[in-house]
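DM from R.C. (forwarded with permission)

"hey, sorry to bug you on a friday — could you get me a structure for this? deadline for the figure draft is monday and I only need the backbone to look sensible"
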Amino acid sequence: MTETFGRYVGKIASRFDTPELRGQLSSVPQWLGSGKTLPLSHGSDQVLKANLSIDGKPVAVAIKIFSRQGLIKDWYDRRHESKAERSYAAAEFLHQQSLGTAEPIAWLDHWQNGRLLESYYLCIHVSAACFRDALIGIYQQERDNAVLMDLLYQVAPAVQNLHEAGFMHGDLGNQNILVPKSAAGEWLPPLFIDLNRSRRALVPLGNRQRAHDLARIALPGGYLDIFKMIYNRHQDLPEDLASLEQKARQKFWGHRRRSRWRHPIRFLKRLRQREPASPYPSEKNLWLWDEKTSQPTVVLGREEKRRHRNISDIFSALARGLIASPSLYLRYRRSLAASYSKPVALKDRFGIALQPQSDYIEQEWALLNALGNPPVLVRFCHHETPEDWQTAIALVERLHLKNIRVMVAILQDRRSVLNPASWRDFLRMVVGAVGDKVTQVEITHARNRSKWGIWSRRDFKDLMRPLLELRQEFPNVRFIGPACIDFEYLPVLSALADLPKGLRLNGLSHLLYVDRRGAPENKQGGFSTLEKSALLKAIADWSNRVESKVIISEVNWPIQGAGIWSPITCPYETEQWRRDKPGETELDYANFMLRFLALTVCSGHVESVYWWRLSAHGYGLVDDQNGFEPRPAFNALKFFLQLLGDACFIKKHETPLGQYLLEFSRGAERILMAWQTSGESPLDDCEQIKQGWDAFGASIEVPVFRESPTYYSIEAIKSRAD
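My reply, with the result:
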């Protein structure tokens, strides 16, 4: 019920309604003019923080001062409700329903001759950043996917609860959502403010009203999709709502982009004051790390990424591919024809990546020893802290003292491109600390994936330019690269061409993933792992910018059921991924790993392979979320290295399509490795098999081809025909 307080009409919430407070509110201008207020926002409608005395105790309050408005608007509000009254009524509803808002205290209006001269809304002040400022902090400082996901898991369901309660905010911009934190730094349920445009219904909102609110949420495309799925109880938005939301978003943000033409004076003023058009970092500079999968997340949506692609770079890569293709094709055919034609000593060809973190090192040290201390890959990441780098340096030194071969990979982030001096100092620090203790150093990572911070040829050139100085300062260090990823070899050609003049790499490194193709023998456009390896070798032979050595510096298969720890589902398991359950079973993972190692190295095309990585819930040989429990792949690799780690590949026997039979020598002993891509068949025509083992070292009596590799110690073998 509306009451009168001096010259004001309004209402005070019953919990705060005391003669003391009424006295303070009867003279708001004098009270606000006391000089004890703090501006919280600027603009036509100003928000101040002040202290009210309630029951003799100071209470921090937020006061929204609504500006004077036009005659027609005053006429309308006189017959309906003012902004202050609407704000109070909406806040009272949200507070009573526990839907999230600052507790309302009062609203006050001063009318005179039909004009609204003063209008105030008061609520308890909550010390919290708004959603917009919290996002900016994450983008610019924390750069951590987990922090952002925790925030979305609070905000999105809260918006959904609003809509289910029949409440439409009307202006649900990021600035109108407060996101408080607990004393422990955890996000708490959000509070909705600036409620004067809100509307209420007795039933859940329809799709058009929901779309109106959702369209004002500002997030990069990858996370906006996640926000909407969390909002819809972890399901895709219904088709009608998705369509309406997209139309409302285009209309709203298109209107915002045209503000320079609607308000040219305001726009020119911002230009003079050098105010950014958006408070957020540019889309290209958004970079967030996901610790669960040890990779950056895909921040932008497809359309956003397309906006920032450099067309000239694409045409340049295509032109280089066309020019190189005749010579490259001939080399590829020769390389492929020579597959498995030469003996290959396997010692130190198969490496494993470790995690240089204090809570991993001792666990992984014991596991590495159980594998027989194969070569190790250690990553140094520019986005990490100096303390992290020192931990990694100490691990390299420890491995070196143990006479374990070490390769180092140095990974960039977006700030590496934006701050060349920082990247140069980082490279020099790492190479200076470990260069004399490692076999090779890989520079940059996945340059053909924009999520790693490289958007153009120029970005890549800038990152590689410090190598010219490092070459002179550390002449004995072997640098490899360019570490492109997947079966995308045009970027490899382009990266080699873009190396600084005078720089020649000591090996061609590549991240050769086949995880969405299943088995390593499966073909992608006519290329299985064998053909992909042969083509990489042909590129290394062809290019004068790199020595003719191929190093696969990263490969694995994602584990089925690993959820957001899987590199193909992070940072959010969508409805499709929950339904399709991507990834491989632990047994298939083990089988594919062994077969991949044999196909790449024994073919003669690949110098060495590093498995990424030893411990990881979503893709490791060991489950780091389950007490470092070894998976079947760990035991399979352990036996493989024990049996063949010091052996020499001799030849690949002729077998029917889909069957593989490789022969190795270990001193005077001969060993066969056999598998087939599906099913099981007897391994006939073998003489004097002395002993047989399955992939995990258990004895087997009857020689077979199966999907899981088997091994046989032999004295002789007959020639085999198709």
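R.C.: lifesaver. Residues 129-281 form one domain.
me: no worries. The two ends are 94 Å apart (CA to CA).
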